[in-house]
Amino acid sequence: MTWFGAVPVWCWWLIAMVLLAGGQEIRVGAGKVEASKAKSELADYRLQVAERDRRAAAQARTEERRRQSVANEEGESARQRLELAQGRAAAAESAAGGLRGEIARLRAGRSATCDTVATQQRQAGTSAVLVLGGLLEESDRMAGDLATALERSRIAGLACEAVVDGMKSTR
Q1: What is the dihedral of CA 93, 96, 101, 104, to 10 degrees?
Q2: Domain range for residue 91?
């Protein structure tokens, strides 16, 4: 008889079951190691994503602050230019007021000096001086208003362009 025959059959079955259970335990243990490795890699990936998101948010905040700073600087510059333009417009209006006063004085003088001229000539001359003086006053007033509006529009447009150029500078 061989030594196989000396061992009962149930023992062989028991040995086979122990070997199968041991192999299965090794396979499950390897799966657990792989699962813990996958969990570790997932945690590392999540950390990387969180760090990347944090850096992107910080960069976006920095860019927003830079853009707001550009807009604030240009807004302040535009306000200063508008104040300067308003000062110049006030000075021009003052000069125009003096010119209108001079026109009124000339009109009054014209009507006073025309006493020696014939009545029809005086009326025609006075009428022409009054009409031309009125036209000059009105055109001067309109030119001042238009110049002020144009200067405001120009300053606003330049400020807008500067803000947009400042925002594009780091793209």
Answers
A1: -130
A2: 9-168
Does residue 2 lie in a domain region?
A: no
Cβ pair 164, 97 in contact under 8 A: no
List Cα–Cα distances, 134 to 92, 99, 127, 130, 153, in angstroms. Answer: 18, 12, 10, 6, 29
| Rounded Cα gap, residues 28 and 100, in angstroms | 104
Q: Residue 80 in contact with residue 161, Cβ under 8 Å? A: no
What is the count of structural domains for the chain?
A: 1
Spell out the alpha helix ranges (H) of 7-118. 9-113
Query: Is position 149 within any domain?
Result: yes
* Residue 4 included in any domain: no
Is residue 163 a part of any domain in this protein?
yes
User: What whole-number distance in Å separates Cα of residue 135 and Cα of residue 57?
Assistant: 63
pTM given for the model: 0.52
Q: What secondary structure letter does DSSP report for 170?
A: T
Q: What is the pLDDT of residues 113-163, one digit of tens each?
A: 555 554 555 555 566 667 777 777 788 788 888 888 888 888 888 888 888
Measured CA to CA, the distance from residue 70 to residue 82 in angstroms comes to 18
At 117, list the tokens: 């001229």
159 exposed, middle or buried (CB, 10 Å; 0-12, 13-18, 19+)? buried
